Amino acid sequence: MTTIQWHQPGDKVYENGLDRGVLYVDGNDGVAWNGLTSVKEKNTNKMIPVHWDGIKINDIVVLGSFEGSISAFTYPDEFYECEGLIEDQDGVYLAEQRPSRFGMSYRTLINNDLGIESGYKLHVLYNLTARPKEKTRNTLGLQTDLQEFEWDISSIPEHAEQHHPTAHVIFDSRKIDPWLLTDIEEILYGTDSASAQLPSLSALTSFIRKWDRLIINDNGDGTWTAISAEDGIITMLSPTEFEIEADNVVWLDPPDNTHFEISSSDKNEEDI
Q: For 238, which of 32, 142, 196, 213 is 20 to 30 Å away at the CA?
């Protein structure tokens, strides 16, 4: 056992910064949200005190749902319908229409007292409805400030197996398996062969819980490295021998079986 130590170099961790905003409008691919300046997250839990004979004996916590606000200097055209603007003809928009629901993701950066970036948290929000705040249109002057747009947002929580429904999921890059995080980001941000998308919360959690990829790295020097987060895939038989239990190993010279080809396993994309 060790004594608690305070103010150790690198132990003071803080969050600072917001980047990689992505907008997901229902039925459409995700698009970059350039100009996103802030996301305020509001805790809507309520505390109900319980008293007995004039003495407080308990607090009952009533769980709320995600609420908050968004600020941005600009936003994607796809967001028009989320604030109730519908394009009737090319370039003709009708206001005061029923807004579409949307999802979004963004990162908050993590740093420490040594000035070293420690990682980031990837936030994913589901089933949001936005209500635009007041907009003021000013004439041009000698000194003109950019207009910042603001919206209040509320959410409809989704079912989370074994947990209370939620509309807010957070991935901490310092703790999650880096290969799993890469797979999640490829889903949310897209790849050269697939568009960015926001799967349902149940599909995303199923993908994560079943994730057991075998990762093969070619070290470029005639050697390779195998990594798996799933127990039983890689077993060390001795300090110089190992066994890999996977379906992505192909023998190249049967029946001698002296040369083989091994590759990373496919992602369990059937859950997305």
A: 213
Nearest Cα neighbor of 21 from 104, 100, 81, 102 is 104
Q: Is there a contact between 21 and 106 (Cβ–Cβ < 8 Å)?
A: yes
Domains parsed from the chain with CATH numbers: 13-198 (2.30.110), 216-270 (no CATH)
Sign of the torsion formed by the C-alpha atoms of 88, 91, 97 and 102: positive
Q: Which residues contact 140 (CB under 8 A, 6 or more apart)?
A: none
What are the mean pLDDT values of the chain's consecutive 10-residue runs (272 residues total)? 86 89 93 95 92 94 93 94 90 90 96 85 96 84 83 94 92 90 94 93 88 77 77 78 72 76 65 58
The pTM for the full model equals 0.80
Helices (H) and strands (E) in the chain, counts: 2, 20
Residue pair 102/125 in contact (Cβ under 8 Å)? The answer is no
